[in-house]
Fold this protein.
Amino acid sequence: MFRAILLFAMLAALMPAARALDGIASDWRMIGQGEMRWFGFQLYDARLWAPPAGWSADGAYALELRYARDIPAQRLVQASIEEMQRLGSADDARLARWKLELERVFPDVRSGDVIHGLHLPQRGAEFYHQGKLTGRIDDVEFARAFFAIWLDPRTREPALRASLLGAG
């Protein structure tokens, strides 16, 4: 009985990812997971999903963020732009365009909400909130810069990166 309950709980935890990636990534597997904290407060849990062949920065993959607190969309957008700028991803004009795109696809999040970012090789990125598509940004450079926030070796959170990549 305990095993059945545990199995049900594990499947329920994976359902948001399966819904967001349904039809695109039904056979993908979780590469790694970690937790993001800021001054001791948990912001979100993160998971990295990839096809059976494994994760590649240039390949298809998905980053799942399950938020532990309410965060307005504008704060998510601003934090993303600041990190892309810190990593030297683009000039001010391009960052301004990307900010407008992020404002279009990012919702306010509440504690427990899940956002999936899907990296689409040679296309850009798609974003899902609670399993529903919120938008696509067809810009390869944007996608590279956005996912670098977590996956670039120069990330602010190297321990989270290592955990996402299965090394932590």
